[in-house]
Amino acid sequence: MRRFLKLILLLGLTCILAGAQAAPKPSLVAKPAASPADHLPSEATVDAFLHQTFGYEPDLTWKIGSIKPSPIAGLAEVTVVLANQQGQQLTHFYVAPDGEHALVGDIIPFGAKPFDPVKKILEKGITGPARGPKDAPAMIVEFGDLQCPACKAAQPTIEALVEAEPTARFVFQNFPLEIHNWAAKGAAYSDCVGRASNEAFWKFVAKTYETQSDITAENVDEKLTAIADGVGLKGADIAACATKPETKTHVDASIALGKSVDVTGTPTLFINGRRIGTVDAHMLGIYKSLVEFAVKSQ
């Protein structure tokens, strides 16, 4: 992963320098308004760009996830999965309308109450299992993937945050990533467990993370059925529920909710609409302060 970060940093520096050295001059001639699709680079162009940027790394591969308009008019957002023997990393960058410049970094909300729009979207759209008072002044929402190693690593920190802030409401939303081969099935099982028993859900998630390395695409049904049995439910019923169209509809709605607030990786936390993209145990004190600040800011 460190190597990936160095690669992304290199990409960022290259793009920043390119923008500084060859900034386009403003045109004095009025042009007709273009549709958002007019500014989207083709997949072939993006692939060629990635080849020129990362082609010197023989063991590095990539997969283009999406090319779509960004929240800022005129910029195209490109999502890419980079992979090598060390693992995978999801990243994104933004392409300018001229097709000759790109920006690396996050687009962040701005204004007097910058996090309110996302907060309102989440308040209206959350459907996942929850803990804490329904009328809590602070809401923590996690978008997670049961196959995601980073999600497993983040759970002790998230649990510590939830335990330290009992007046906050914590909600889990499924967001299985396409790069994981049993994550979608894990989301289906957890959705069914959550609807059967809110209490059993948290035990199910904890046990799934605990045994994550033993679960494969081939044995996932067997393993998750056994975990469901172990948390006090009838595993066979949960397994049957996981195959139903309505369960896929629930999971798809959770994914759509995440995408509507620009979730691209897991785990992603929101504290009253404020995004926490990386969960770090060393930042637990900061996360507590954010929750407490959110309560005071109501």
Overview features:
298 residues, alpha+beta, Nuclear Transport Factor 2, Chain: A, Glutaredoxin, five-stranded mixed beta sheet, 9 strands, 17% strand, disordered N terminus
What secondary-structure arrangement, pairings included, does this model have?
Layout (H helix, E strand, L loop, with lengths): L1 H20 L21 H12 L6 E9 L6 E9 L2 E9 L6 E3 L11 H10 L4 E2 L7 E6 L4 H16 L4 E6 L8 H14 L1 H13 L9 H11 L4 H8 L2 H16 L7 E4 L2 E3 L7 H13 L2
Helix pairs in contact: 5-6, 5-7, 5-8, 5-9, 6-7, 7-8
Question: How would you describe what is shown here?
Answer:
With 298 residues, the protein is an alpha+beta fold. It folds into two domains: 2-21 and 31-104, Roll (Nuclear Transport Factor 2, Chain: A); 116-296, 3-Layer(aba) Sandwich (Glutaredoxin), CATH 3.40.30. The chain contains ten helices and nine strands. The chain has helices at 2-21, 43-54, 116-125, 149-164, 183-196, 198-210, 220-230, 235-242, 245-260, 284-296; strands at residues 61-69, 76-84, 87-95, 102-104, 130-131, 139-144, 169-174, 268-271, 274-276. Residues 1-34 have low confidence and may be disordered.
